[in-house]
Structures are given as structure tokens and as C-alpha cells.
Amino acid sequence: MEEQKDISRSACVATVIWVLFELLEYHLLTLVCHLLILALALLFLWSNAITFIKKSPPHIPEVQIPKDPVMEFAQALRFEINRAFAVLRDIASGRDLKKFLSVITGLWVLSIVGNWCNFLTLFYIVFVLLHTVPVLYEKYEDKVDPFAEKAMHEIKKQYAVFDEKVLSKIPRGPLKEKKKD
């Protein structure tokens, strides 16, 4: 129950952020700059007002980003990017036609969805889905699983027809002539 409240809270926060950026046409850089202006102005005024009210000046902590977590993040990011490049190279090598066609189809669908909405909207939709779909699945698992099995069976049936009519007719490399002895 508490997990559902956290999920609904995070979805609500994501909705507010989306409304702020998308509907009000506010931009992230503008928001960051305005927040920094506000923080700096308040600290500057507070530091100068202290002399009039005879209190001690505010303690503004020195903030530094530690080197180790940044290096770990950079190494993890580098590893993931290299892994993605290896997967893309493997797909482009032409060994697995099914994987190649599924990736091309996925990228094509993603490009169509990208034309319908901007990155922030797409990010918002994915964020809300990632926070709501698992909860809904757990709640309705007994109804979703049979439907997913039927859908998977139908997809396999359609792929078999596509494979028979299209993919099986694509040549798989140069034809080699048999040598006569």
C-alpha cells in the first residue's frame, strides 16, 4: 500500500514537471537559472541584512563534487556505451536477420513516436508507465498472463507466415558452386 502511494506521488510530481515544461513552455535551463538567481539573491540579501540586525552571517557550505563517484559513473557509462556499440556491431554484421529486422522496426516505430511528441513528453510517458504498469500487473496478473500468452501465440503465428512468405526467399549470401571431382 505504501509503495502505491510512493508511485502515485512520483507520477504526480512527474505530471507537475511535465505541465511546467510542456504546457507552460518553460525550459530546463531557464528553470535552473531562475532557481540559482533566487538562491543567490536570497543569500546575498541575507548576508547583507545581517549587519543591520546584528546577527552572525549565514554559514554557506563549500560544495565540491568528489572525484571517485564521478569516475565510477563515467566508467559505468563508458562500459554501457561500449556494450551498446558491440550489440549494434553484432546486429549489423548480418548474422541474425530476425534480430536485425526487429531492431530496425523498433527504431522506425520510435522515430514515428518521436515525430508525434518531443523528448520531454516521451520521457514523461515512459516515466509514468514504468511506475504504474508493474503495480497494475501485480494487481491483475491472473488476467494479464492468459491474454499475453494468446498475444504471443498470435505473434509467433504471424511471424511464421512472414518468415515463410518473405524472409525465406531472401538469399543468405553468395551462392557457392559445387566443385566437380
From TrEMBL:
Gene Ontology cellular component terms for the protein in this record: endoplasmic reticulum membrane
Keywords: Endoplasmic reticulum, Membrane, Transmembrane, Transmembrane helix
Transmembrane segments: 26-46, 107-130
Reticulon domain mapped to chain residues: 1-181
Subcellular location: Endoplasmic reticulum membrane
PROSITE patterns in UniProt: RETICULON
Main location (coarse class): endoplasmic reticulum
Protein name: Reticulon-like protein
GO biological process: response to bacterium
Stored Pfam families: Reticulon
UniProt xrefs under PANTHER family: RETICULON (PTHR10994), RETICULON-LIKE PROTEIN (PTHR10994:SF193)
Topology with respect to the bilayer: Multi-pass membrane protein
